[in-house]
Every structure is written in structure tokens, then in C-alpha cells.
Design a protein that fits this description.
GO molecular function: ATP binding; DNA binding; DNA helicase activity; hydrolase activity, acting on acid anhydrides, in phosphorus-containing anhydrides
Shape: globular
Largest sheet: 7 strands, parallel
Organism: Haloterrigena salifodinae
Strand content: 5-15%
Structural class: alpha/beta
Number of helices: 20
Radius of gyration: 26 Å
Protein name: ATP-dependent DNA helicase
Region (Disordered): 266-303, 552-617
Domain ATP-dependent helicase C-terminal: 403-526
């Protein structure tokens, strides 16, 4: 790596905010001999441009010996972040590669077939006449041969050990604050009807300790191997059989990793096993006559997956830059991901957005814990109406935290008569609902679930937002419970604070941008007190300035907006065409919400990342 090139590799024609000083500090950190540099850069500071400049410093082929690693990887856990990179002209030389399922076959009769189910993977010995034009293999060839390859963290980890994507000189990880949690998620093994192709043919014992879980994993891996070999012996497979073969291969790798890691006395990984209740549809004699009690689906979870990160990340490069706005505690972050803090440099990038443009407001109405939610949610709904009155012609975003809270709020707001201005989404229609809301000129309010990160709502896309619940991890999750039993409360509060800071950055994206964030759950104030020592100075400045706003009296009719465009007729009811369409949209949203209520899983033993992204509680 040659950090002296960092300024010439910066892709923008000019610097914004503190970018020039940040480049100088990053350059000095690498020049001092650090192999890993953490770059703590606030939201909107242009992290992707800094990332490109760092990646451009990688050793080039002309300056390397044949055995030297050259080039760079850019990776991020967020698919939307990779989409933004692909669409940015300043980052055109970051060559993006995605997984096979994201590409369609170009053969005439297969244009609706994803590449991972195309004839080349269905038929033995298939010689594709257009492989040189296949979109996946074309992108892969380009990314593997150019100086900077860009991919999601999932694809990056999956290609560990690949002959195509070998070790490179520099690895840049954007949005790196959740690296430990993402590694835990990728290394978690789910064994159930949706993940094991022949689950209904298995007899699953009750797993009461890890030794028994390891023995069962070995047995299951052997069965998967035999089934996979049967599929491989066939000349032609159906798309469903291809999916089964690939899943079996993944499952074998997951199970083998668990067994080998558990039996490695040097491994720092702690494993936990959760088992849900057996389905009533399965009878006690559905296998081989064993009298042992039968158990249900299993989740095998790693904690502190340092060994997994060593193989999938740290062995993939010589130098590393990890960028995020919310690496809140350097020492704690390093311990979580298996780095030695003394060997890691931290570069803090100054926040150049005026603090008065990103105000926090205290509109707390009580706690949103499970026990107190029934009392607090209606109060928050009334507060949202008053905020809609305060912002009659501006788009708003409500961070509902869970689909249960989203549904309750949607019903209450509809009952209050402001449903015409409310939008919701479900899991499957999340992206489409978000795109529709952003594209609309109406000052609608989106009740969102898990949109605290990787969302750019610059300018009039959104001028105000509400945090309905402190985003604490689910204490019913075994990993969270295990850490709290060990007294890791600082980690618990720091993780929630990280999500809050990320959320606050969604609506202010430039120095001349502005957006208000309203805090509705009083537990957020308690969180700020408990996690104050891990709070960045620039966010602490927002907390210090926080005040309780003077909101208008509760008059739902004033919340429907009186601005121009399609929203101008809202004050006169819903007789106009726009109002009728919006009413239909709201009713469709409520119907989808009721459908979600009946279809949610009751399993409380989901992974910590599932609690962050997909909680229902």
C-alpha cells in the first residue's frame, strides 16, 4: 500500500467539509505502520469517497512481485449502500459484483431464470454458447481483474478461499460498525423445515447440551452429503433440485464449521443452541423407533466469532480501513471483531453540519416496554398527529421499531382521521413502499420498520422523523441474555445508542440540509444517560441542545396538509380523486397489517441481528 497516493486517488473534483483533513489523518495513520485504521466519519461526510481514495492506494501490479497481493476490495453489509456506489459516477471504477441470484440468464428460453438455476448449473457437462456474455460471469471477470472489486459483505465472506477473489492488498469495509453482529448472523446455523430440504424425513432429538448438538450436526452433515451425492449423480436437475443441491452444500459447510470450531481448543468462539418446540404435525414415531424424546427446529449460534472473521475478513488483505459513523468505543469494537486495540488506529472526522440544523426534540410520552406499551402507544399516536400539524406540508418518517407497533399506530392514526396521509409497508413490499413514498410529492408520513440505517433522505425527501421506541436488543434472545448475565450492560446500551445515532442521520445529509428528530419513548432519555461516555462529541452536542417543543393542540383536521400539488385538497375531505385513492391505499395498508398479525412467528429465540432488523415485539 502506498498512502502517499491518497489525495490523487480522491475521486471528487473538490473537498467537502472535513474531507481534506480526514484524508491527511488517514494517510498519517497508515504511514505510521498501522495495518487497520478505523475511520469514524459522521453521516453525510462522504465516507464512500474516502473509501475510494483509500482503496486507490493499494499496491498495483506493475509495482508488485508475482507473490504479492495487489488491488483492493470495497465491501459493505448494506445492499442499498452498494446500489448507491454503483449509481455514483464518481465511483465508476469500483467494479460491482453480486451473487448469481441477482443476474438473469440470457439464453432465449431462460430469460426469467436466475443464473444460479440456469442450464449451466442444471445439466452436467453443459457447454453454454454465450457464457462470455453471461452478465454474472462478465461482472465477475471484470471485478476479479480490475484494481477495485466492490461487493456486499455477504458475498465477500462467501468467497473466502476462492481462486477468483484471492487476497488483496487493501480491504475497505464501509458501514463497519455492525461487523461482529453480521459475522454472528452469517455463522448462525438454522435447522428447520425452511432450511433443511428433507426436514420432514428427519427425527430430531431433544438437544440439551452442546456435545449432543455436535453429534447431531455430524450425523446430519453425513445425511446431507449422501443426498447431495444422489443429486450430483443425475445428468439433469430441475431448478428445485438445483436449489436443494446448493442448499445442501451450504449446510454441509456450516455444520462442518460448527463441529471443527467447537472441537478446536484454541477457538475463542462460544456456541449456544436454541431449540423450539416440535410441530404438532409430526408424530413421535416418524423416524427409526427411537424412544428418546423428539425435539423441534434448532438454531446454533456463535458468540465472539473471531475465528470466523479471521478466515472470512482478516485473511483477505494486508491493510484494512473500516468506516462508520458509529464505531462508538474503539477498544470494545476491536475486542468484538478479534483485533488488538494497540495495533489499530482511530481517525475521527469532524462533523461539519451545523448542530442547529439537526435538532433533537423531547416529545416523550412514557415508556414503550412491552408492559407499558398499551398505555403509551395511543399517546404517541396523538403526538404524531400534532407533529403532522406542525409539519403540514413536509414528509415525515416514523421509526416504529416493530411491525406490531407499526400496525397499532396505523390503526390509531386512521381512527383519528389522518389515515390519508399515512403510508405503511410489509416485509415483502418494503423497498417498493419506500420508493413510492420517496417519489411522491405529497407530504405523506411513512410508518417504517428497521429503516434506521442506509437510507438517504436528503432535502425535501423528509424533513422530520419520530423515534417511537428505544431500539434495545431483545433480551429474550439467548446471545443477548448470555452477555447480560456476564454483566455486559455497557455493550447493551452502546448497541442501542448506535442505532439511534444512525437513525438521526437519515434526514440531514449535507451542511445546508435540515431535519428534526422527535423522541417519543422516555427510555431514550435513560439510554442517553447510561451511554453518555460512548457518545461522540458531535452527537452529544445535539443531546445537550435538546428541548421540548411547543406543539399545536390536537386537531386532526389540521394534520392533513394544505400545500400545493395533490395534497392541496386534503383539508376538504376525501371526495376528490386524490383523496379517494389515498383512502384506498391506507385501507390496503391496514389489510396487509392484519394479515401480518396472523402470520407472525411466535419463536422468541431469533438471532440478535433479527432483533435489530425484524423484531415484532
Amino acid at each position: 500500500m502506498n498512502p502517499e497516493r491518497i489525495f490523487e486517488e480522491f475521486p471528487a473534483p473538490s473537498y467537502r467539509g472535513a474531507q481534506e483533513q480526514a484524508l491527511r489523518d488517514i494517510q498519517d495513520a497508515f504511514a505510521a505502520g498501522n495495518d487497520v485504521v478505523l475511520v469514524r466519519a459522521p453521516t453525510g461526510s462522504g465516507k464512500s469517497l474516502l473509501a475510494r481514495a483509500i482503496a486507490g492506494c493499494a499496491r498495483e501490479i506493475d509495482d508488485a512481485d508475482p507473490s504479492d497481493a495487489t488491488g483492493a476490495y470495497y465491501t459493505t453489509p448494506q445492499v442499498s449502500q452498494l446500489d448507491d456506489v454503483a449509481a455514483d459516477d464518481l465511483l465508476a471504477d469500483l467494479n460491482v459484483i453480486r451473487g448469481k441470484s441477482n443476474y438473469s440468464c440470457i439464453l432465449p428460453d431462460e430469460r426469467d431464470t436466475p443464473v444460479n438455476q440456469a442450464p449451466c448449473v442444471r445439466e452436467r457437462g453443459y457447454d453454454c454458447s454465450v457464457k462470455h456474455r453471461c452478465p454474472y460471469f462478465s461482472d465477475r471477470a471484470i471485478a476479479s481483474n480490475r484494481n477495485i472489486a466492490a461487493m456486499t459483505l455477504a458475498y465477500f465472506m462467501q468467497t473466502a478461499g476462492s481462486e477468483v477473489f484471492r487476497k488483496r492488498d487493501v480491504v475497505v469495509v464501509d458501514e463497519a460498525h455492525g461487523l461482529a453482529e453480521w459475522a454472528e448472523m452469517y455463522a448462525t446455523i438454522q435447522l428447520g423445515p425452511r432450511t433443511v430440504p428433507f426436514w420432514d424425513d428427519l427425527r430430531v432429538p431433544e438437544i440439551d447440551d452442546l456435545d449432543r448438538a455436535v453429534r447431531y450436526a455430524e450425523n446430519l452433515a453425513q445425511k446431507c452429503g449422501r443426498r447431495k451425492d444422489d443429486l450430483l449423480s443425475q445428468d439433469t436437475l430441475s431448478p428445485a433440485e438445483v436449489r436443494e443441491r446448493d442448499r445442501l452444500q451450504e449446510l454441509i459447510g456450516e455444520l462442518d464449521w460448527f463441529v471443527s470450531d467447537y472441537r478446536d481448543p484454541q477457538s475463542p468462539t462460544t456456541w449456544l443452541v436454541d431449540q423450539s418446540e416440535r410441530s404438532q404435525a409430526r408424530t413421535s414415531d416418524d423416524a427409526d423407533g427411537d424412544d428418546d424424546p423428539a425435539g423441534g427446529p434448532l438454531t446454533i449460534k456463535p458468540m465472539n466469532p473471531e475465528k470466523y472473521l479471521q478466515h472470512t475478513v482478516w485473511d483477505r488483505g494486508n491493510k484494512f480501513a473500516l468506516l462508520s459513523a458509529t464505531i462508538l468505543n474503539k477498544d470494545a469494537f476491536c475486542r468484538q471483531v478479534g483485533l488488538t486495540p494497540e495495533n489499530v488506529a482511530l481517525v475521527d472526522v469532524e462533523h461539519t453540519f451545523p448542530v442547529e440544523n439537526r435538532p433533537l426534540y423531547d416529545v416523550t410520552q412514557g415508556k414503550m416496554t412491552y408492559e407499558q406499551r398499551d398505555d403509551t402507544t395511543p399517546k404517541i399516536a396523538r403526538t404524531i398527529v400534532r407533529l403532522m400539524q406542525r409539519h403540514p406540508n413536509e414528509k415525515g418518517l416514523v421509526h416504529a421499531h416493530s411491525y406490531d407497533i407499526q400496525e397499532r399506530l396505523a390503526d390509531l392514526l386512521s381512527d383519528f382521521g389522518v389515515g390519508d396521509r399515512i403510508r405503511t409497508h410489509d416485509r415483502d413490499g418494503r423497498d417498493a413502499a419506500l420508493d413510492g413514498w420517496k417519489a411522491s410529492d405529497d407530504p405523506d408520513v411513512l410508518l417504517s420498520v428497521k429503516m434506521e440505517e442506509a437510507l438517504d433522505l436528503k432535502g425535501d425527501l423528509c424533513r422530520w422523523q419520530v423515534l417511537c421506541k428505544a431500539p434495545f436488543l431483545n433480551t429474550g434472545d439467548s446471545r443477548v441474555a448470555h452477555r447480560l448475565e456476564e454483566g455486559q450492560w455497557a455493550w447493551y446500551y452502546r448497541t442501542a445508542l448506535r442505532t439511534v445515532i444512525q437513525a438521526c442521520g437519515r434526514v440531514v445529509r449535507a451542511p445546508d440540509d435540515h431535519g428534526a428528530t422527535y423522541l417519543a419513548d422516555s427510555s431514550l432519555l435513560d439510554l442517553f444517560d447510561r451511554a453518555r461516555t460512548d457518545m461522540p462529541d458531535w452527537f452529544e452536542a445535539q443531546v445537550v441542545r435538546m428541548e421540548r417543543p411547543d406543539l399545536p393542540a390536537f386537531r386532526p383536521g389540521d394534520a392533513l396538509g394544505d400545500g400545493g400539488g395533490a395534497s392541496s385538497a386534503r383539508g376538504g375531505g376525501t371526495d376528490d380523486a386524490g383523496g379517494s385513492e389515498r383512502g384506498t391505499r391506507t385501507e390496503r395498508s391496514r389489510t396487509r397489517s392484519r394479515s401480518r398479525r396472523s402470520g407472525r412467528s411466535s419463536n422468541s429465540n431469533s438471532s440478535p441481528v433479527a432483533d435489530v432488523w425484524d423484531t415484532d415485539g
